[in-house]
């Protein structure tokens, strides 16, 4: 928790999240249909996920396994057995007009996730995380483009039955930046667990509740200690349609400002649901004076309770980002910043460890964290984009480590050209003639430079150390820039000492 | 045909050989048949043709049976007379002018009229046993979990099972042999217990084999009741028609003559069973029937307006009065503020009923009662008073609440009208019921 002190008149932002995460399983949660994305609507469907009369759900244990992994990663309580409920509501994307979900006994309860915000470490409470089925997706055609204004609406059930995990946090966030940090950390953990694919469209969907509370309503000085009463007294808005961490920060910053402005101008904040319009960068009111929804939850008798008491021990999870970051600092002597960068995704961290296993860990860190990620970031690429070419990057590091090319050429010419034209490092080196000039050739150039520039040599001998730079320049010119300036410097000094 | 037994007459041939080769089977119209419409007796599904077979239908085909048609039923199984069908009522072949019972009235009537050798029905609160009793045939409601429900259009999914009708106990048992058993498409099914003779307890917790290896339910129809302990729950005789009670005791006397013994037992909780049953069944129905919105299949109202209005219109036009009544009451019982008062209380009562049965079955091998407290109603009478119709289920619904197996077997007649005797056994004790019931033939 942050322990900021607050002043009278201050307004404190309070945010809680409901995050829907699509779990990466081969088949849907209650039938054998593929979860593979396809452009053909209603291709991966069967009687079960279409909700045909008489069809029955059968639980995909891979989804439960993924949920248990998440539970272990966030140190949540996992019950002896897990059961499902029906959430009853009508909507055109919902095949059965009820959703199979979990109610009073979620698969994960009372977990936590540690995040880092501007160097501060904080712990966010995850109140619960439960399994449920994704509805289908709607495409509104013509008219106003919304469900009530379109000419007609098409339904695609390919998505229906994709396993979802709904992760509900306590109202622990005090700023949109904290929300973003949490979502980034969460995504990282989920990817480490191998239960989530961030690049899948719609794989992460966020609803956020935001309220503004006057500082004087807060017990004590710690903003973390907001009483339930103060929270209940404040009107909150639920912001829907957020689909990324960046989006979450923007949407909530907008909403925070909108509510604070209203309060400062003496206007009431309405309790309502608002829609984040990503393209316009604003939230718009969806429904105000929201009625308390009654979902008439009751037990899903078609799915007998599943005993999972032993699963927590049986299912192993990999080393998580925080632990790995700490180990990188200890084992490879990396800075916190470098270790953080290198553990940002499992793939980056795995690659770093491959390279650091063969070459100097510091050199590996510079190459992976700074050079590779820097160049990728500049091109708006992820490491996944060059998944099949990581060996080429390793080869490039080898060329540098074995002194075959200069670090400067490796970074500025070879790496960029690899990413831009798809050439291999050896091709670039050969085609651009970047191989480091042989030692004899450099030595010859040094001797020549000394002979051809008696004035500079005299200046150096009379104590003008700057003259060496002129001589280094001459040698570089003779070798077409392929010599290492440090080496040249040393060779020159040795030559002049003789 | 005069009785209006079938909604759709269609021959579906099974494999060339198998235990049911050469036998004809009528299938209740809430059991999905690929390529043959499955209406549930409702206008809502008048044109619905399933793209898949229910597990029991696949098993019938594999066993060589010939399906001869889809039988009439109360709409979505909601009724005890087959009069709530939107395809008109079915007459009782054993008592013309009277209802065949329900909701599987068409299936019972098909067997009684000789339209089919065998039939499948479904039983949520008595929907196999009631028409079996009224039409003078044998009907079995299996233990919850013995027969796959995959493809059975759900009404009260925690209560119902598919089961057989036949003119003899042995034939019904043979059909049960074909349809019983674990199914990967229904997570509530259990492997058919093979081994001893049944055991008390919660069906859903019982996994012990009960039938001997290789033995079949049909083999159990030996008529041997020597030493059988019959418990007669006094509560299930109270308020029953005099002629029905007399016929019942005559049947018990027959069993005594063949070596069985009876004693009275008490099931105090059953006085709440009808209320509990209707709250649970209607609650589940309100959710199970929510999918009928006209979007993917079923009645399309072709309405103007937004999706909400279109859904409402499809449901207004597609469902009959009894279905609407039960959806409304079920929705109410699950609603915030009423959930604890109705739904939760009904679940508590269900647990109590189960416990009473378990206790009674510790001192008896089977429990016996009249299947229905009354002989078949005259046609057209019952729709006027739904509550009276619900109360007629008093002897059958407790069995569904307890997840137990039961059989209805003809016990004789009163005033020329069929009377059925119901035997209830422990979870997966079908073999015991079949043996005892066959003694009455």
UniProtKB/TrEMBL annotation, chain A:
PROSITE patterns the UniProt entry points to: GATB
Keyword Protein biosynthesis recorded: yes
Gene Ontology MF term list: asparaginyl-tRNA synthase (glutamine-hydrolyzing) activity; ATP binding; glutaminyl-tRNA synthase (glutamine-hydrolyzing) activity; transferase activity
UniProt keyword terms in alphabetical order: ATP-binding, Ligase, Nucleotide-binding, Protein biosynthesis, Transferase
Keyword Magnesium: no
Lineage top rank: taxon: Archaea
Segments forming domain Asn/Gln amidotransferase: 350-496
Enzyme Commission code(s) on record: 6.3.5.-
Gene3D superfamilies: 1.10.10.410, GatB domain, N-terminal subdomain
Reactions listed under catalytic activity: L-aspartyl-tRNA(Asn) + L-glutamine + ATP + H2O = L-asparaginyl-tRNA(Asn) + L-glutamate + ADP + phosphate + 2 H(+); L-glutamyl-tRNA(Gln) + L-glutamine + ATP + H2O = L-glutaminyl-tRNA(Gln) + L-glutamate + ADP + phosphate + H(+)
A GO biological process held by the record: glutaminyl-tRNAGln biosynthesis via transamidation
Top-level EC class as recorded in UniProt: ligase
Similarity comment: Belongs to the GatB/GatE family. GatB subfamily.
PANTHER family with a match to the protein in the record: GLUTAMYL-TRNA GLN AMIDOTRANSFERASE SUBUNIT B MITOCHONDRIAL AND PROKARYOTIC PET112-RELATED, GLUTAMYL-TRNA(GLN) AMIDOTRANSFERASE SUBUNIT B, MITOCHONDRIAL
Stated role: Allows the formation of correctly charged Asn-tRNA(Asn) or Gln-tRNA(Gln) through the transamidation of misacylated Asp-tRNA(Asn) or Glu-tRNA(Gln) in organisms which lack either or both of asparaginyl-tRNA or glutaminyl-tRNA synthetases. The reaction takes place in the presence of glutamine and ATP through an activated phospho-Asp-tRNA(Asn) or phospho-Glu-tRNA(Gln).
Record text on subunit structure and interactions: Heterotrimer of A, B and C subunits.
Protein name (Swiss-Prot/TrEMBL): Aspartyl/glutamyl-tRNA(Asn/Gln) amidotransferase subunit B
Organism name: Natronococcus jeotgali DSM 18795
Automatic annotation (TrEMBL), chain B:
InterPro entries xref list: Amidase, Amidase_CS, Amidase_dom, AS_sf, GatA
Pfam families, per the entry: Amidase
Any single Gene Ontology cellular-component annotation: glutamyl-tRNA(Gln) amidotransferase complex
Region: Disordered, residue numbers: 72-108, 182-218
GO BP: translation
Swiss-Prot/TrEMBL catalytic activity: L-glutamyl-tRNA(Gln) + L-glutamine + ATP + H2O = L-glutaminyl-tRNA(Gln) + L-glutamate + ADP + phosphate + H(+)
Tree of life domain: Archaea
Polar residues compositional bias, start-end: 79-89
Annotated keywords: ATP-binding, Ligase, Nucleotide-binding, Protein biosynthesis, Transferase
Residues annotated as the enzyme's active site: 28, 103, 127
Domain Amidase, chain residue ranges per copy: 10-433
Molecular function via GO: ATP binding; glutaminyl-tRNA synthase (glutamine-hydrolyzing) activity; transferase activity
Biased amino acid composition, Basic and acidic residues: 186-210
Transferase keyword on record: yes
Enzyme Commission code: 6.3.5.7
Subunit and partners: Heterotrimer of A, B and C subunits.
Family statement drawn from the similarity comment of this UniProt entry: Belongs to the amidase family. GatA subfamily.
Function (record text): Allows the formation of correctly charged Gln-tRNA(Gln) through the transamidation of misacylated Glu-tRNA(Gln) in organisms which lack glutaminyl-tRNA synthetase. The reaction takes place in the presence of glutamine and ATP through an activated gamma-phospho-Glu-tRNA(Gln).
Official protein name in the record: Glutamyl-tRNA(Gln) amidotransferase subunit A
Gene name of this polypeptide: gatA
């Amino acid at each position: 928790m942050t322990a900021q002190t607050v002043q009278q008149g201050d307004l404190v932002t309070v945010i809680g999240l409901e995050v829907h995460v699509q779990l990466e399983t081969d088949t849907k949660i209650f039938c054998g249909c593929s979860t593979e994305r396809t452009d053909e609507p209603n291709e991966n469907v069967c009687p079960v996920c279409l909700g045909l009369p008489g069809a029955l759900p059968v639980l995909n244990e891979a989804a439960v396994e993924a949920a248990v992994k998440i539970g272990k990663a966030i140190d949540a309580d996992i019950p002896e057995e897990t059961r499902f409920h029906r959430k009853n509501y009508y909507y055109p994307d919902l095949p059965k007009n009820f959703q199979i979900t979990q109610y009073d006994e979620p698969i994960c309860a009372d977990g936590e996730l540690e995040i880092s915000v501007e160097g501060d470490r904080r712990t966010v409470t995850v109140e619960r995380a439960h399994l449920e089925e994704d509805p289908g997706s709607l495409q509104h055609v013509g008219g106003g483009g919304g469900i009530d204004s379109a000419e007609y609406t098409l339904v695609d059930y390919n998505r229906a039955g994709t396993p979802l995990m709904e992760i509900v946090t306590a109202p622990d966030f005090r700023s949109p930046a904290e929300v973003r940090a949490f979502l980034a950390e969460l995504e990282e953990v989920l990817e480490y667990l191998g239960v989530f694919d961030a690049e899948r469209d719609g794989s992460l969907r966020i609803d956020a509740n935001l309220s503004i509370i006057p500082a004087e309503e807060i017990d004590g000085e710690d903003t973390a200690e907001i009483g339930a009463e103060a929270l209940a007294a404040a009107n909150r808005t639920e912001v829907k349609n957020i689909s990324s961490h960046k989006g979450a920060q923007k949407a909530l910053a907008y909403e925070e400002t909108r509510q604070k402005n209203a309060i400062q101008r003496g206007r009431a904040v309405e309790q309502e649901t608002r829609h984040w319009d990503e393209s316009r960068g604003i939230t718009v009111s969806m429904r105000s004076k929201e009625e308390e929804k009654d979902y008439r939850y009751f037990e899903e008798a078609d799915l007998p309770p599943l005993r999972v008491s032993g699963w927590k021990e049986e299912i192993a999870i990999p080393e998580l980002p925080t632990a790995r970051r700490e180990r990188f600092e200890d084992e490879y002597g990396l800075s916190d910043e470098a270790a953080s960068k290198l553990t940002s995704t499992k793939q980056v961290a795995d690659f770093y460890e491959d390279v650091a296993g063969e070459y100097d860990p510091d050199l590996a860190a510079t190459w992976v964290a700074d050079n590779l990620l820097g160049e990728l970031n500049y091109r708006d690429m992820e490491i996944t984009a060059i998944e099949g070419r990581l060996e080429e990057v390793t080869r490039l590091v080898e060329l540098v480590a074995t002194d075959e090319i200069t670090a400067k050429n490796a970074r500025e010419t070879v790496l960029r050209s690899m990413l831009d034209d798809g050439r291999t490092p050896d091709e670039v080196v050969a085609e651009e003639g970047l191989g480091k000039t042989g030692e004899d050739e450099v030595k010859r150039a040094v001797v020549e430079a000394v002979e051809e520039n008696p004035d500079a040599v005299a200046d150096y001998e009379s104590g003008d150390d700057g003259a060496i730079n002129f001589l280094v320049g001459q040698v570089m010119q003779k070798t077409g820039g392929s010599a290492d300036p440090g080496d040249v410097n040393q060779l020159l000094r040795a030559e002049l000492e003789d | 045909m005069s009785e209006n037994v079938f909604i759709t007459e269609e021959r579906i041939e099974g494999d060339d050989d198998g235990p049911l080769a050469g036998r004809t089977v009528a299938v209740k119209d809430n059991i999905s048949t690929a390529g043959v419409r499955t209406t549930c007796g409702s206008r809502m599904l008048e044109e619905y043709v399933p793209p898949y077979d229910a597990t029991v239908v696949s098993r019938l085909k594999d066993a060589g049976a010939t399906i001869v048609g889809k039988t009439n039923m109360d709409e979505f199984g909601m009724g005890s007379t087959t009069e709530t069908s939107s395809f008109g009522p079915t007459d009782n072949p054993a008592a013309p002018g009277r209802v065949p019972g329900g909701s599987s009235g068409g299936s019972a009537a098909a067997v009684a009229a000789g339209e089919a050798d065998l039939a499948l029905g479904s039983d949520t609160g008595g929907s196999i046993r009631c028409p079996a009793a009224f039409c003078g045939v044998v009907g079995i409601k299996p233990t919850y979990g013995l027969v796959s429900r995959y493809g059975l259009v759900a009404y009260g999914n925690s209560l119902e099972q598919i089961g057989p009708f036949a003119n003899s106990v042995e034939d019904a048992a043979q059909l049960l042999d074909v349809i019983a058993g674990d199914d990967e498409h229904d997570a509530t099914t259990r492997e058919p217990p093979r081994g001893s003779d049944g055991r008390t307890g919660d069906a859903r917790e019982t996994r012990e084999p009960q039938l001997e290896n290789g033995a079949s339910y049909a083999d159990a129809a030996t008529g041997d009741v020597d030493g059988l302990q019959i418990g007669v729950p006094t509560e299930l005789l109270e308020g029953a028609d005099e002629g029905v009670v007399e016929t019942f005791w005559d049947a018990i006397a027959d069993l005594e003559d063949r070596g069985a013994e009876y004693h009275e037992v008490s099931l105090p909780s059953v006085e709440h069973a009808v209320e509990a049953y209707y709250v649970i069944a209607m609650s589940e129905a309100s959710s199970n029937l929510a999918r009928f919105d006209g979007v993917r299949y079923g009645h399309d109202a072709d309405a103007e307006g937004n999706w909400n209005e279109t859904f409402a219109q499809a449901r207004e036009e597609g469902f009959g009065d009894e279905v609407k009544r039960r959806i409304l009451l079920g929705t109410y019982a699950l609603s915030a503020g009423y959930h604890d008062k109705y739904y939760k209380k009904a679940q508590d009562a269900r647990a109590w009923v189960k416990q009473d049965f378990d206790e009674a079955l510790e001192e008896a091998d089977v429990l016996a009662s009249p299947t229905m407290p009354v002989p078949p109603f005259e046609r057209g009478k019952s729709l006027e008073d739904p509550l009276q119709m619900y109360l007629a289920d008093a002897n059958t619904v407790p069995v569904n609440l307890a997840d137990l197996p039961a059989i209805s077997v003809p016990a004789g007649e009163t005033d020329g009208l069929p009377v059925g005797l119901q035997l209830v056994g422990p979870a997966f004790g079908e073999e015991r019921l079949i043996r005892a019931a066959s003694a009455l033939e």
